[in-house]
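quick one, 158 residues, struct below
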Amino acid sequence: MIRIIVLSAFILTQSCSQVKLIPSTSEQIMSKIKSFSSQKAVLLNIWALWCVPCVEEFPMIVDLDDEYDELEIIFVSADFHEQKSEVQKFLKKQGLDSISFIKNEKDDPFISGIHPEWTGSLPFTVVYSKNSGIIVDSWEGKHSESRFRDAIDIAIKS
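---
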């Protein structure tokens, strides 16, 4: 009987646990990216719930994260902070159990702080080299899995 109660409590707490979603500025996100320099390539993906192409490509990116050991994927939601619970539900539904971020800065300083050539269009993806931490590729909009794989392979090797 005690085993059943303990097991039930464990299952209940696991199903109620929320994905960790940290409000962050562009400066904090860039600092996080730099922390992986010389350790892993980094793929930064900025997305939003209201962005259909973002939501469409999200599962593919999660699958890539599971496949590459030398890759760190950083997701940043551009949704409003008031939507935090909806974003957490989406991330949990996608099977994401790592830390993710939600934009906590006005649009203009956030956009220019992430990448000087980014127009603010979503989704936005940037891939950073494993060894040097420099940008090897970046793009706006939804792209094919092969585009992601090509950029990741270059980032891991450079």
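The helical segments are 2-16, 26-34, 52-67, 84-93, 107-114, 145-157.
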